[in-house]
Amino acid sequence: MDEAGGNGNDSRSVVSTRTMEAAVAALLFLFGATFLYQSYKLGFGWATEGPQSGFFPFYVALIICVSSLVVFVNALRGKAGRSDEAFVERGQLKKVLQVLIPAAIYVLGVQLIGIYVASAVYIALFMRFLGHYSWVKSVLIAVIIIVAFFFMFEVWFQVPLYKGVWDLTGWTGY
Amino acid sequence: MQDLAYLFHGFAVVVTPFNFGLMLLGIVLGVIIGVLPGLGAANGIAILLPLTFTMPPTSAIIMLSCIYWGALFGGAIASILFNIPGEPWSVATTFEGYPLAQQGRAGEALTTSFTSSFVGALFAVLMITFLAPIIARFALQFGPPEYFSVYLLTFCSFVGMGKGSPAKILASMMIGFALSTVGIDIVTGQLRMTFGLTSLMKGFDFLIAVIGLFGIGEILLSMEEGLSFKGAAARIDPKIVWETWKKLPRYWLTFLRSIVIGCWMGITPGGATPASFMSYGAAKKFSKDGDKFGTGVVEGLVAPETAAHAAGTSALLPMITLGIPGSPTAAVLLGGLLIWGLQPGPLLFQEKPDFVWGLIASMYLGNVVGLIVVLSLVPAFAAILRIPFAIIAPVIVVICSIGAYTVNNSIYDVWYMLIFGVIGYVFKKLNYPMAPLVLALVLGNAAESAFRQSMLASQGSLGILFSNGLVGGITTLSLIMLFWPLISKGLRSVIPSRASKAPAEQPVD
Using one digit for the tens of pLDDT, what is the confidence trace for B459-476? Predict the structure, then answer.
């Protein structure tokens, strides 16, 4: 992890808490509205066999819409102070994305080459580029961890893990 | 007295070498989980749950509940030595624990907090031992309306006793309910809310939500800080333990008050985190050293630790007697029960006494063993925090992914986990509580079918929720809880009282 402290550029706010509050509330409202529409289509009334399938989700979605509206209004009317603070600063967002984006690529990797190979590559690259370890150390530690996992899951607990679309560990016989 | 005989039988179940070994393993794993930021009790147990599918249920629950006890102990280590709460309920522990460690009294602080945790848990288990069979017998008469009113009380309590914005608590809870309706409608068998996607047909598994929200979300939050751990050295020798134990009995009143707060907050779904803060606040108010709090007062360490453990333990009481978990971790354990083919609730006491009393016996033994393990192995656990975060972070992501995959052997679940991780990160930063979401997702189907069955019985009249004293009482209490934020506002305008001085940095759980 590189220490970015003191860099003025990195402490700039990306988005204020107030904006984020309002945006999340708006998204929740959309989510609620979608469910509301779906349960309306299913029927939210009373049938011969009792409440219809959409009955319960309808009221649940209604409460989501109402409470997200309340949060939205509160966010806009919010007193200065916490809501004007940064939701996330540039440097922070950079660090979060440094984990999140590789993690998403990792999950894609799991889908293609299986959990074991993808995990080893992910740990090694993470250590090399974010931890600034030497290549030798990174690869060595990653391989040790993954071999340990392999034995734990495949051999001891007999829980087979995903081997991927292109099975690269087939030669192990598990 | 029949129950006591069952309890002794339960001890016999636990002390078989296999179960005892699992208990030790569970506690050590639990402490590690508790020490590491990003791995908590709830997601740790969710990840390890699939490993227990092949075990006998009694052994499995012993191991998983011991992970819980271990995590409760472990949270304190990171708080006291590194000023990093390993778990949300150990935030209040840092207030007094870290100053003590800085004064070179780390050993004393650790001993105090472990002992307090132990005392809190012990009393909660005693309460469970005596109350659980009574509640279970009583609950045998429950029908759908009774169950629905208890669910109602559970969820309304979040609003009434939760910290933070009631609108956010409600929103978070209803998202959980909404997600629980995705898939096949269990009453009519109709598909709903799938938006035509086959991958949504089987619905959302709450274990995936737990792993994403608490695991990935927490890692993203920790990354923001760019954590570099700098901690005090820890060494505990028998002399320090003995010296500390001699001093502790003088805080009996603090212990007692914290136990009561903890048990109450644990049974009602307040959870361990609010319990620890409430107890810390109460100790500060009633202590004659109140103004010295924050500088390393032992009493201020006793209070949150006792309450957190009492709450964490008593959260299992409604879980085993009614099938209603009192905390996200209890919810995960409940999910485990269902997977092993056990239906939690009052019948469990009659049909599977081995299981229930084995679990209760393991709570006693697990806490005793846990206390010994943490007291003797603190330096080893503290060393875990010295492993650089650049190694820990990717390994935790890998462990979470493996955990998410093994729940249903589905690769889609790993993607959902990642999405829940981002949601968890945003929600945590905006103070949306996550416990209501998880509990609603777990209980959604049960609550919905209880409601629909009640409505069928009454031909659609809500009056059935007031049809007898029991149901009516619980429903009324629920409504009071639901509107408590408004009621307390009204009361405060009539009777002006001192503003509560709860610490501002209290996290929502």
Answer: 878 888 888 888 999 999
Taking residue B494's Cβ as centre, other Cβ atoms within 10 Å add up to: 6
Picking from A84, A104, A127, the residue at the C-terminal end of a domain is: A84
All residues of chain A having their beta carbon less than 8 Å from the beta carbon of residue B460 are 46, 50-51
The reply to whether B475 falls in a domain is: yes
Q: Tens of pLDDT along B247-306?
A: 889 899 999 999 999 998 888 776 778 888 889 989 988 888 878 888 888 999 999 999
Instruction: Tell me whether residues B455 and A50 touch, CB distance under 8 A.
Output: yes
Q: Is the pLDDT of residue B344 over 90?
A: no
Residue-range definition of the domain harbouring residue A153: 89-172
Does the beta-carbon distance from A98 to B223 stay under 8 Å? yes
Mean pLDDT taken over chain B? 86
* DSSP H helices in B315-352: 316-322, 328-339, 346-351
* Shortest Cα–Cα distance, B72 to chain A (Å): 25
Indicate whether B112 pLDDT > 60. yes
Residue A20: closest CA among B104, B426, B168, B338 = B426
DSSP notation for A53-115:
TTHHHHHHHHHHHHHHHHHHHHHHHPPTTGGGSEEEEHHHHHHHHHHHHHHHHHHHHHHHHHH
Q: Phi and psi (nearest 5°) for B157?
A: -60, -30
Of A42, A63, A84, the residue at which a domain comes to its end is A84
Q: What is the pTM of this model?
A: 0.87
Token pair for B469: 């004293």
ipTM over the 0.85 cut-off: yes
